[in-house]
Specification:
By secondary structure, the chain is mostly beta strands. It has 2 domains: 113 residues, Immunoglobulin-like, CATH 2.60.40.10; 152 residues, Sandwich (Immunoglobulin-like), CATH 2.60.40. The chain contains 2 helices and 17 strands. Strands 2, 4, 6, 8, 12, 13, 14, 15 and 17 form a 9-stranded mixed β-sheet that branches. A 4-stranded antiparallel β-sheet has the order 1-3-7-5, with no helix packed on it. Strands 9-10-11-16 form a 4-stranded antiparallel β-sheet, with no helix packed on it. The protein is elongated, with a radius of gyration of 27 Å.
C-alpha cells in the first residue's frame, strides 16, 4: 500500500514539474536565452584537408577548397564581400580569377541561434608543365563588412554634487566590457564622468580580431582586394561610429573626435568622447548606453604549396 501511494505522489510531482500537458509555455515562462553578443571573431577560414595538396605534379589540376564560418553576430555575404586567392604566378597557374569569389550568405549568431552560417568557397586551377620545381605560398584574403553593437548599463546622475544627503540607487563608475560583442572590433571600456546636468562618456574601441579595419562601403571594399592599388591612408584604420544612444536617444552628434562620422585607430585602438544632457530635477537612475560601429574588415591565411616537374 505504501509503495502504491509513493508511486502516485511521484507521478503527480513529475506532472507538476513538466507543466500542464497540451499547454505551450509562454516566452515569460521559458528560460532566458544566453547572451549572444560575445566573442571577438567574425569570419573564420581554413583550407580543407589536402585541398590544396602540399605537393602536386605540373600539368595536374590544382583544387582549392576554403571552409568558412561566421562566428559573429552580423550577416556576411553582401555584394562586395569577397575572397581573393593570390600569391602565385598566373603564367604558371591559371583558372583563378583576380576578381575573387563571392562570399556566400552566412547568417550571424542570434539570441536563439547559437551557431552562425558556414559554407565553402572553391576554385579549380590548372598548372602548366614545368621542368623545375615551383614552390609558392597560396594566400586567401577575405574582405567583408561587419558591425559591432555594444550595450552597457550606466548611471545617470543629474546632480552628482548635491549637498543634501540622500540615498541614490547608483553612482557613475567606469564600465568594462570584456569578452567582446561577437565581432572582430570590440568596445572594451566606457569611462563615465558626471557633472550637474551633463554626463560624459569616454568610449574605448579596439580591433581584437587579428585583421585590419577599414572604412565600410563599396569603394573601400574594392580597394581591399590584393589585386587593386590598395587601401589608402584615409581608408585603413577607420570605422564608422554609426550611433551612440542613451535611453534610446541618440547622442552621436556630441561625439568627438570624428573624421566625418568615423573614428580612427592607432595601434588597433580608438577612443571617442560623447556627452549626454541629463534631465534636471530627476534622481539618479540606471539606463542602457548602446554603441554601434560599422566597418570593413580584412583577414588572410596562407598555405605553402609545391609544384613538382612531371618529368
Amino acid at each position: 500500500m505504501r509503495k502504491a501511494l509513493l508511486l502516485i505522489v511521484l507521478v503527480l510531482l513529475a506532472g507538476c514539474a513538466g507543466g500542464i500537458p497540451g499547454r505551450t509555455q509562454t516566452k515569460g515562462q521559458q528560460a532566458f536565452a544566453p547572451e549572444f553578443r560575445v566573442g571577438s571573431q567574425g569570419l573564420m577560414m581554413g583550407f580543407a584537408q589536402n585541398l590544396p595538396p602540399l605537393r602536386l605534379f605540373s600539368g595536374e589540376e590544382l583544387p582549392v577548397v576554403l571552409q568558412i564560418e561566421n562566428r559573429g553576430t552580423t550577416t556576411i555575404g553582401g555584394p562586395g564581400d569577397r575572397i581573393y586567392f593570390t600569391g602565385f604566378d598566373p603564367n604558371i597557374i591559371a583558372g583563378i580569377s583576380p576578381a575573387g569569389e563571392q562570399i556566400p550568405l552566412l547568417e550571424g549568431r542570434t539570441q536563439f541561434v547559437t551557431q552562425g552560417g558556414f559554407d565553402t568557397v572553391s576554385v579549380k586551377a590548372t598548372t602548366r608543365i614545368l621542368k623545375d620545381r615551383y614552390p609558392f605560398r597560396l594566400l586567401a584574403t577575405a574582405c567583408y563588412e561587419y558591425e559591432t553593437v555594444a550595450s552597457a548599463n550606466v548611471c545617470i546622475d543629474p546632480n552628482p554634487y548635491s549637498p543634501v544627503v540622500q540615498q541614490k540607487v547608483c553612482a557613475p563608475v567606469n564600465v568594462p566590457l570584456g569578452g567582446g560583442q561577437g565581432a572582430p572590433v570590440a568596445v572594451t571600456l566606457v569611462e563615465t564622468d558626471a557633472s550637474p546636468g551633463k554626463t560624459r562618456f569616454q568610449i574605448h574601441i579596439q580591433n581584437v580580431g587579428g585583421g585590419e579595419v577599414f572604412r565600410s562601403g563599396g569603394s573601400s571594399l574594392n580597394h581591399c582586394a590584393p589585386t587593386s592599388p590598395g587601401l589608402g591612408y584615409d581608408e585603413i584604420d577607420y570605422a564608422e561610429l554609426a550611433d551612440v544612444s542613451v535611453s534610446g536617444q541618440s547622442i552621436r552628434g556630441s561625439c568627438r573626435p570624428l573624421d566625418g562620422s568615423h573614428v580612427r585607430f592607432t595601434n588597433n585602438q580608438a577612443m571617442v568622447y560623447c556627452e549626454y544632457n541629463a534631465p534636471s530635477g530627476q534622481a539618479a537612475y540606471v539606463t542602457p548606453l548602446t554603441i554601434t560601429v560599422r566597418y570593413g574588415y580584412r583577414q588572410s591565411l596562407f598555405k605553402n604549396v609545391e609544384i613538382l616537374p612531371s618529368t
